[in-house]
Structure prediction request, 369 residues.
Amino acid sequence: MIEFKLAELRKKHNLTQQELGEVLNVSYQTISKWENGATSPDLSMLPHISAFFGVTVDALLGLAPLEETYKPSNSGTAEYWEHRLEYLLHTRKTMWNRDYMQFLIRDVWNIHEPITVLDCGCGYGALGLLMMPLLPKGSKYVGIDFSRNMIEAAKKYYRYSDITAEFIFSDIQSYRPKETYPLVICQAVLRHVNNGENLLRKMAGFVKEGGLLVSLECNREFEADGLYISGMNYLDLCRHQGLKKLWQKELEQQNRDYSIAMKIPHYMKAAGLKNISCRMNDRVTVLEPEASDYGDLLESIIKADHWNDEKTDQEIETAISYFMNHGMDRKEAEDYCRQMNGIVKYLKNNRETISLTHTYGIMISYGWK
Prediction:
């Protein structure tokens, strides 16, 4: 049974029925009828009422607590990644230029002899598939991940390659290596976990003396500004004030750090590494309809960012509830959902003529032990 919480919220905010009626542009008699159950507001009014009080529609209707407990992001859990293979396959297609990785290996990290690489949070082994053909012959790849599905996928992708590879099903946090490694690397891992600094320290312990630790991470501020679609307003595309509140809330509540990429060089120094430096990945995807791989790349960008379909009203309301729980106010949550649906609609209506620029802005931090 729905228990409308209007009277409770009104009194909590020290408002009279007359004052609330003026805010909502209805009479105090209407407010009275809503509160005693004689009538109910139109469905179209509910978002306005919930926005004014800073609660979700579900909370307004008594279907959720008015003071909701924070619901942590689960992107640092194995359960989350068990079903994210397609996401990784699509995002990795536009993440690297092969020649820049070759430059890092040969000219920046000066790797000229066979080496064993430990990839922490390897997923399906995308980083190994990129790096190993560029490393000296005789090098070995070791991937570790806490998702069993990812490990099985990695074994499948490496089965018919000539890469010497080993895969370990384990959580990095509890992993006890039998050996240390000359190169330990991770890609887009620390941004997803709680307390990324601790995980980085753990990985530093996997590095042998004289070895190299590398972290490849996005700063969410960079990433949020890294999309332009011709025909759309760039200022609208990169507007993310609500996301800033969400990132701050997640940092405060669970130490999930949207800006960890900027801090990693300093965390490496605190972990005892030497000769620490940082570079930016040079990959920027420029997509034009004339490109030979136009359809494939556009499909990957669409699926990576979940721009397949416009969200239904119910899906939007669910998303709004989550965003509000993570620090946004209702208007910011509604604006963000509207922004995403706008991108989906534009891409759908202009599928054959999309021109865009997209970059992740990956920061490459590294240091020697």
In short: The chain has a mean pLDDT of 92.
